[in-house]
Amino acid sequence: MESRLGRRTGDALRDRSRGFDVAAGVLGEEYSGVLIHDGWAVYDRFTNATHQQCVAHVLRRAHDLLEVATRGAVIFPRAVIELLQHALTARDEFRKRKQTRAALRELADELTTKLRVLTCFRRANPDHERFAKHLERHATELFTFRRLPHVEATNDRAEQAIRPSVVNRKVWGGNRTDTGAQHPSILTSVLLTCEQLLRNPLDFLAQARRATHSIPLFAPTR
Question: Which pTM does this prediction carry?
């Protein structure tokens, strides 16, 4: 029997857009958990969530600007890289028990202030100006991983989770039809969720298959 999550994921997959309605169909409009993500504007509409902008994406963007910058234009991307690397170093020191939670929160506030100062004036280079506006708009979301140590700095776990499906899609994997794409997508979502919750996926699928009515996903077993 198809799980509730499977039905919701399937409904979202049938919509080919990447708008808020599709994301909300999976997470729920009032989602209040943690979102670790890139700069996709749709995420901003989850106003009840705690946000962490993926530091890896921001660093990559800063390095790309630095590679083509000349003379004084190198100052801005270098300063951004230095700020973010400082935050990542503090994370590593905390994991080695060389930093306290209070020190991490204080550092997060300090880095946020420095970032705001760094982005508060206009730049002649349009790429730098666009990047500065992005950083200014999300300044409070770049160092969430410093204020809340259990939050990751990047969305690497999510990217690694979808990598097998991306590879499978590139070599066909049944994705030449909508139905062929939908079925493995639902199954992959269920299997990965089982893995994260330390549930045996075969046991869960067997339980769902035997059920005569729809059951809550991952209902406790006896």
Answer: 0.76
